[in-house]
Design a protein that fits this description.
By secondary structure, the protein is α/β, with parallel strands linked by helices. Helices cover about 40% and strands about 15% of the residues.
Length: about 350
């Protein structure tokens, strides 16, 4: 029986009691535990309370469940490190190493094993990764949606996670059909502030180039248009570039080259991110022009690329490692039942360097 004078929640008391039985060897590795109904009757608890206790024991690696067979004591529970998966669009490029480092710091200190995978922003690859990760006995998932501005063909995998009680947190964007825990940037506000900054410097002929198959690009474009509208400026459709993932290595440069041949040409360009800003910078150089003397340029994410060349980009801060750490903390809070669907939106923060000038 549980101690009625103990102020701890009943599920927590049951969890600790079962842990003690496992550690003392009264429940042997591989031994089947009593059913939820049996435990509820024995300890005079609701099935919900029993289920919560068993869920935490499973997350902590003390037990495992087999469909149709029951719940079993895990082999060597003290040394088991439960698996948490991280699925991002990319792993080794741009801002992603810093995000993953932040995630790893928290999970490693909490005793979890990290499984990494990337989709290359390809929905087919995303489906393959999700199927593989779900089969690996993961207890939680951090995921960056693939082509988040497009209808997803992979929602069934997330429904499967929900059915199995496996928490997941989305970063950078969310599929609109789902209601997940998430961490995102306020991208529309960022696009607005980037454009407003250039307008305040006196620019009126402002172009923009944005990614169209990720929600971040769609929202930054919306902010760009909102700032122009606030200044009663009609957007020039020929000055707004739109590209998809497969065009990343060709479209930005070619669009910028075409843009710079127009008369009059833009005096400033808002870029989807720092990576695109460097492609645009190369096109500006190719045209015999200079930043910021001839064209002002603004990026996004404050990546290492922002200060990699002699032109130091004005850009927007991305929390990177802190976002990773916070995503990991959200997962642990969800695993421990402290919160169901946490969320956080980071406000944009402009970092002014030398790529923009006053007209």
């Amino acid at each position: 029986m549980l101690d009625p004078s103990n102020p701890s929640p009943k599920y927590s008391q049951l969890k600790e009691h079962l842990k003690e039985l496992i550690r003392d060897g009264e429940l042997s590795p591989g031994e089947k535990l009593p059913s939820e109904n049996d435990l509820a009757r024995r300890f005079k608890l609701s099935r919900h309370t029993v289920r919560q206790a068993l869920g935490e024991l499973e997350n902590e690696g003390f037990i495992y469940r087999e469909q149709g067979r029951g719940t079993f004591c895990r082999q060597n529970p003290k040394t088991v490190r439960p698996n948490i998966a991280v699925l991002t669009t990319y792993i080794s490029d741009y801002i992603f190493p810093a995000i993953i480092k932040g995630i790893e710091e928290v999970f490693s200190s909490e005793g979890y094993n990290l499984i990494l995978a990337s989709t290359n922003n390809d929905p087919v690859k995303e489906a393959q990764c999700l199927e593989n990760l779900i089969s690996q006995d993961i207890v939680a998932l951090i995921v960056e949606p693939t082509q988040s501005a497009q209808p997803s063909s992979n929602l069934d995998y997330f429904h499967k996670l929900e059915t199995r009680g496996i928490p997941y947190v989305m970063i950078h964007a969310c599929y609109p059909e789902l209601d997940p825990a998430y961490l995102v940037m306020d991208d529309e506000r960022g696009g607005y502030l980037a454009t407003q900054y250039l307008l305040q410097l006196g620019h009126r002929r402002i172009a923009g180039i944005f990614k169209s198959d990720d929600m971040q690009g769609v929202q930054r474009r919306q902010g760009f248009l909102a700032a122009l509208a606030e200044y009663q400026l009609l957007p020039n459709p020929n000055w707004i570039g739109s590209y998809k993932t497969g065009q990343i290595h060709s479209y930005p440069f070619e669009f910028s080259r075409s843009l710079l041949t127009q008369d009059p040409r833009p005096t400033a360009i808002v870029c989807y991110n720092d990576q695109i800003a460097l492609e645009v910078l190369e096109a500006i150089r190719h045209a015999g022009l200079k930043v910021p003397q001839d064209i002002s340029l603004i990026g996004y994410d404050d990546s290492l690329l922002a200060s990699a060349s002699e032109v130091k980009l004005t850009t927007f801060k991305h929390p990177k490692a802190e976002m990773g750490r916070q995503a990991a903390r959200f997962v642990i809070d969800m695993l421990n039942g402290r919160i169901a669907k946490p969320s956080l939106t980071y406000p944009p923060e402009l970092i002014i360097r030398s790529s923009c000038r006053t007209l």
